[in-house]
Amino acid sequence: MTDPIRFLLGRKPVEVSGVAPTTTVLEWLRGDGGRCGTKEGCAEGDCGACTVVLVERGADGALQSRSVNSCIQFLPTLDGKQLLTVEDLKAADGALHPVQAAMVETHGAQCGFCTPGFVMTLYHLHRTYTGKLPPSRETLDRALGGNLCRCTGYRPILEAGAKMFDTPASPDPRDANVANLLAAFKHDHGFVYEAGGRKFFAPSNLAELALVLAANPEARLLSGGTDLGLEVTKAQRDFPVLVSLNEIAELKRIARTATHLELGAGLTWTQAMAPLVTTFPALDELLARFAGPPVRNAGTIGGNIANASPIGDSPPMFLALDAELELFGTKGARILKLADFFLDYRKTALTPGEIVAGVRVPLPRAETKLAAYKVSKRFDDDISAVCGVFALDLDGDVVKAARLAYGGMAAIPKRAAKAEAALIGKKWTLDAANAAGAAIAQDFAPLSDMRASAEYRAKVAANLIARFWHETAGTAATRVVRYG
Amino acid sequence: MAERYAPAIAAPTFDPIGKSAKHDSAKLHVSGEAVYVDDVPMPKGGLETYCLLSPKAHAKIVSIDLSDVLNSPGVHAAICRKDIPGRNDVGPIFPHEPILANGVVEYIGQPIVAIAAGNVKLARAAAKKAKIVYADLPAILTIDEAMAQKAYVAPPYKMERGDVAAALAKAPHRLKGEFANGAQDHFYLEGHIALAHPLEDGQMRVLSSSQHPSEVQKMVAGCLNLSANQVTVEMRRMGGGFGGKETQPAIFACIASLLARRTGHAVKYRVDRDDDFMISGKRHDFRVRYEVGFDDDGNLLALDIEYAARAGHVADLSTSIVDRALFHTTNTYFIPAVRATGYPCKTHTQSNTAFRGFGGPQGILAAEHIIDRVARHRGLDPLAVRQRNFYGPAPRAQTHFGQTVEDFVADKIVADLAKDVDYDKRRREIDAFNAANPILKKGMALCAIQFGISFTAIQFNQAGALVHVYNDGSISLNHGGTEMGQGLHIKIAQIVAHEFGVALERVRITATDTGKVPNTSATAASAGSDLNGQAAKRAAAEIKQRLAQFVAGLHGVSEADVTFANGMVHAAGKSMKFEEAVWRAYNARVSLSATGFYATPKIHWDRAKAWGRPFFYFAYGAAYCEATIDTLTGEYKIDRAEILHDTGRSLNPAVDLGQVEGGFIQGMGWVTSEEIWFDKVGRLRTHAPSTYKIPIARDMPAQFRARLWAPAENVEETVHKSKAVGEPPLTLAAAPFLALQDACAAAVPGRYPLLVAPATPERVLSAIDAAKAGA
């Protein structure tokens, strides 16, 4: 038995069946969907030419929108949502949307190939932005952090991003019925889609998930899918059974107890950013530099942890925060220290049928100094050569506890035990920081690759501890870019 | 037949020359309605392509067994070189540049087998079933290895003026050095694509994302053993080109056409981003070695410089590209004795190719590196040293290749820019910042560029256009240039509308088509509007002259008394609408269609003697940049860029400004974050945006201002006294690079931290650390 994939294409309900579950939204749009406005630039979520906007009902029933990369989203993940593409923006009378008009006015398109993606990113900003007008350069840089243009040098696009607000967002009368149409898509059971012998499940709660996983032990899990999508577009993998965690409400929890910030593993990075940054302001830059907005709007906390990449940015962050994981499986739930989760390259402590359900982060203590650093060739939307997140508990100026966690330095995200040991019990001075930096050489033997040489990684990993000291001591400016 | 005029235009743009008309496709771009090759509906039965690419840098192909490929579901054809009925060759200058590997593979990524199937997934799955046996051969993977083995794709080439050895010997100071600049992928957002339709009687129609449809036509005809009149190539718009679609599209178009011929179906070949990177060529990386002689004041007396470029496995355009590095090796400076030698090195890597600037940026960056180093060596301000070395009146006007610089304005532009940015004050402020900051260091640089305009292969400096005036008064424009986003079409429409005195909106631009204008040159060398604009102007002028003659006859006045303006034709105190004049002329049997042809005057070049006037004129510009580096990580930010650029009398200031800004940022990417990285076996490991980092919005300097230099007017008779603008601004990348160099120098006072391009954070840090260590 299979459900059709039901969604609004623009304002029109469509039902799709018979296409492989790993068909990307972009592939479908440009093929059966008959909409060629959305472009493929990279098929890996790094250029933004394929950006579309998804609208869905939130827990409170209100409509929420987000921009995503259609090139790595699988079509069945659209079920129950509205998909807006560049073709949906013009008014009924053919007038350009304020975003489009601004892009024309500022000469924001040259070759035009990236333009539909920029237009959709700006449309999303225009629709959702509630801050000060005109938006700051920082606001626009952040919003445009997932879109590449090779022609303009960005000046006219940034200008369009400000100019579009000359005409404030107003609800499109054609969207009046969207909430009702989406409500009508609601299932009374978990979504099940099958085509060509390939299955896609999207259970709506953990109980259903347990049943699906028990029945399909070989299933591959999808949580956001911003990495999994690449296994299809880049490596032509075939997945007989996919189980999406995207629709499970229990995985989207945000709670603050007396001792912990608790985040559901299904929260997207965009959703997780506010509670994390509110609690730990030092994480703002790292989270702003975590991929680009369309990836952060789809990719999840749980996905970034469970895929156990040695170059993911959240594991060092959660390691330094001394977080623990809530695991859920067919055999029940358990709690595991994150430090015990990563076993080897891309190997974790998850048992078959088990998922990462949430992260519990101890609330900050007054004596803790925290800093998060990412070093890459490009500031925005790049993968770390080295990511270092440091937490020090100080007693006066003496280091009581140190957690120096790194990505990009080993086969797994890892704390620098020797460097930490070099600090504990010492006064927090530049000499101590440099001594800890010197110990990095014993903690790690990093690789050379296209992102950086082993020597550079080792050197930077050490120097970041010195940077940390300068920042905590307030002795010198250390950042060439300020994320405001 | 009663008259029927084209619909009235609501808001006509009259007299459009010099106006910032919007890109002709702007509204289509923003609404997703602009059609690119991949958006053209596939004909019934259309097939898609995947190519099996070489996994070896250099190997003999012992055997190819495709039986399992052919039996794979959905496969219609799988071909290798023996299945090519005509020439297995897309060499634009030199022969033997294969479409499909010719018995040996010469780089990782070289197409060997091309497969057509119902869709690309099926073709890709089938490719895995090919059985190919290789016998490894030794591979040359670096410039150093190629130079050591004297492995070149073409003979080394030299430009020389004066007695360099004597001048060096006499010079009060000499410096030797080695410098390097990196390769660069074009990263056009639209990758390579071709769609081939087999037509009746063996003919082929090809839609190709190409800057050079005539060459695609020639190569497709060659591989199918057809004559040119049996192949038509059409191009409406590219999603970016930047030189990457000058020669490179041929291979994709040929493969699609070969498979279309073989199957009888329409065949599309669209590569994904990874394959685009793996198959196609990039900007040449160069190793530069030099010895420069100068006096106490930094006056340059002699330069002996050697450029070794990674050409890749075949020559492609490498000789011309290396030539252009040699042409620009003195940039804006007069050096009495110059010897510049170029080596197009053979390596078993992608065949490097044209990229915006075409060797010029590499030559200019080296020149600016050298003069910067000379200034630092003498403890002088680099800007002052630049200014005292500029070209000037004779005897300081002659280049090392014999051309007299007659239009030099770099000195004036630099003076204006230095005043605008208050150079000396900023120097003091930045020095003060550096004194106060132990970790962060700031740097600044102001330099100018001089870029020669014309194809240095003289025969390419020609263009054709075809203009039709329909009898309703509407105008159809076709010319040999292609639109890749640079706004060529709108500029030429402006020229044609101006010529007829009609509204810009009356002119419809049509797809570039080898069936309409033949024997075209690539839209390249920044020459698109210079060449095609003149050709279109002449075509329009011819029709206008016929109309004038006709109208003059009506009123009994002379042709010269007929004027065209604001959509009207005036003569003898009477006026009629342009469309009425057209309609009446049509009824009087006046021809309303014409071709126009243009060949650039004055230029000549004797390559054997390395002497002549290869350039019609020079384009100039200057940039001032500031940068901040972090001496702990090497991370940096280009904080400020101020640009003054000479576009002559601009045909369209907004379009030209777009070229200046976009070219500058693209050049900034080349010298900063864009790094082409091969592993030890020669496999390109930066082949997608996840690993290859072009500038993103945040990288645009917080203070970024580009302006067209106001007093400009081309001294040569170019179209409406304009200047070419496509490539020159990219070469302003020297300024951000040297601002970083200046910041590095501030981090290690008294020493010279040698920075090479691209200046990734790693290179910045290692330059500083090496200088600290005394290396």
Describe this structure in words.
- The complex is a heterodimer of chains A (484) and B (775).
- With 484 residues, chain A is α+β, with helices and mostly antiparallel strands.
- Chain A has four domains: 5-87 and 176-244, Ubiquitin-like (UB roll), CATH 3.10.20.30; 98-171, [2Fe-2S]-binding domain (DNA polymerase, domain 1, Orthogonal Bundle); 250-362, Uridine Diphospho-n-acetylenolpyruvylglucosamine Reductase, domain 3 (2-Layer Sandwich); 368-473, Enolase-like, domain 1 (2-Layer Sandwich), CATH 3.30.390.
- Chain A contains 16 helices and 20 strands.
- Chain A has helices at residues 25-30, 98-105, 115-128, 137-143, 155-163, 178-184, 206-215, 228-233, 269-279, 284-288, 293-296, 301-306, 314-320, 417-423, 430-443, 454-473; strands spanning 5-9, 12-16, 51-57, 63-69, 82-84, 191-195, 198-202, 220-222, 241-244, 254-256, 260-264, 324-329, 332-337, 342-344, 347-348, 354-362, 368-375, 386-395, 398-407, 414-415.
- Chain A has a five-stranded mixed β-sheet. A five-stranded antiparallel β-sheet of chain A has the order 10-11-16-12-13.
- The radius of gyration of chain A is 23 Å and the shape is globular.
- Chain A starts with a strand and ends in an 11-residue tail after the last helix.
- Chain B is α+β, with helices and mostly antiparallel strands and 775 residues long.
- Chain B folds into three domains: 46-138 and 186-279, Aldehyde oxidase/xanthine dehydrogenase, molybdopterin binding domain (Aldehyde Oxidoreductase, domain 4, 2-Layer Sandwich); 286-456 and 607-772, Aldehyde Oxidoreductase, domain 4 (2-Layer Sandwich), CATH 3.30.365; 462-599, Aldehyde Oxidoreductase, domain 4 (2-Layer Sandwich).
- Chain B has an eight-stranded mixed β-sheet. Chain B has a five-stranded mixed β-sheet with strand order 7-15-14-13-8, sandwiched between helices. In chain B, strands 16-27-28-29 form a four-stranded mixed β-sheet, sandwiched between helices.
- In chain B, α10 packs across α11 and α18 (734-747) runs parallel beside α19 (761-772).
- In chain B, 64% of the residues are buried.
- Chains A and B meet through α2, α3, α4, α5 and α16 of A and α1, α3, β27, α17 and α19 of B.
